[in-house]
Recover the amino acids of this structure.
């Protein structure tokens, strides 16, 4: 079945008169296109010879029609133009478009098809699609499940996918070659993208550091981190050779060592807290502005960033080039 026809949707759309007009125009289009095709074939000697052999009476009967076909076609053109003007008037009255003169530009195929000479007459076939579109718009018919629609939609998707994949792959390849030639892209990203957002980044890093300091300082929330720092510092103090000699002091040696361990641990924790709480956006900005002390290290970092971007583009190209339409076959 080509499509599903819904009488319920037809009643709900309140477009019965227009739908009837659409079907009437569709019939005229089929008749007109059939006559145009037959008249074009009739103009060839081969067809006339075959018609003369099959039915000489039909050949003689059609001769005056062929001679005056332009006048017959003008009758169809007059009907098509009348229908076009009526729809244009209704569109203006209903304010379907922002400007009254938009209608002929949007429905240009209706006007071009009305040209009564040359191959433009075959453009009237486009009116068939406009009628089907209107019927589909009001859900009076449903052609999405029909075999022709699925066939056309599938190969249209294939065409668009293949075309877009090649365009995207070409753009990415050009970007890779630009980077490999020493493109100033990274410098432009740094100066035009990152630099303009440096105050926001500095504020975020500073607020994160201050929040971390308050978290460690809190006796409940920062318990886990404080215990981790305490264990780490405690092991360092106990493994220190100078501190370990305190155990040799009779009676009070172990107590002094434990007291020193607790004191150093508290000092380290408090130092970390004070360090984090003292972080300001200005200090972060100063740290970022000075960059790396070694220029060679900075150059290696830039090259590594280029390699990362290049590999990401290569992965993106391989992903884009994957023909997804083959999985749907």
């Amino acid at each position: 079945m080509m499509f599903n026809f819904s009488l319920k949707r037809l009643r709900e759309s309140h477009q019965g008169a227009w739908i009837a007009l659409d079907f009437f125009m569709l019939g005229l289009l089929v008749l007109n296109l059939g006559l145009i095709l037959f008249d074009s074939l009739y103009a060839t000697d081969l067809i006339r010879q075959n018609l003369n052999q099959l039915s000489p009476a039909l050949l003689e009967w059609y001769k005056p029609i062929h001679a005056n076909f332009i006048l017959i076609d003008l009758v169809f053109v007059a009907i098509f133009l009348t229908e076009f003007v009526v729809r244009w008037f209704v569109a203006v009255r209903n304010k379907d478009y922002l400007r009254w003169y938009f209608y002929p530009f949007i429905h240009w195929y209706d006007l071009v098809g009305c040209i009564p000479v040359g191959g433009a007459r075959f453009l009237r076939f486009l009116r068939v699609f406009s009628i089907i579109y209107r019927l589909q718009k009001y859900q009076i018919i449903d052609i999405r499940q029909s075999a022709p629609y699925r066939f056309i939609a599938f190969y249209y998707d294939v065409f668009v996918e293949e075309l877009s994949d090649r365009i995207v792959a070409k753009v990415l390849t050009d970007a890779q070659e630009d980077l490999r030639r020493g493109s100033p892209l990274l410098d432009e990203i740094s100066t035009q993208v990152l630099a303009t957002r440096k105050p926001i980044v500095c504020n975020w890093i500073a607020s994160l550091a201050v929040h971390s300091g308050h978290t460690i300082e809190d006796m409940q929330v920062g318990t886990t981190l404080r215990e981790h720092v305490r264990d780490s510092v405690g092991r360092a103090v106990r493994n220190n050779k100078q501190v370990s000699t305190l155990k040799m002091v009779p009676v009070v040696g172990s107590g002094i060592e434990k007291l020193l361990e607790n004191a150093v641990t508290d000092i380290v924790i408090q130092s970390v807290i004070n360090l984090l709480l003292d972080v300001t956006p200005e200090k972060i900005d100063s740290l970022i502005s000075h960059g790396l002390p070694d220029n060679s290290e900075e150059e290696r970092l830039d090259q590594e960033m280029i390699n990362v971007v290049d590999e990401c583009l290569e992965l993106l190209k391989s992903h884009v080039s994957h023909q997804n339409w083959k999985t749907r076959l």
Q: What stands out?
A: The chain has 16 helices and two strands. The first strand starts at residue 4 and ends at 5. The beta strands are 4-5, 141-142. The chain has a mean pLDDT of 77.
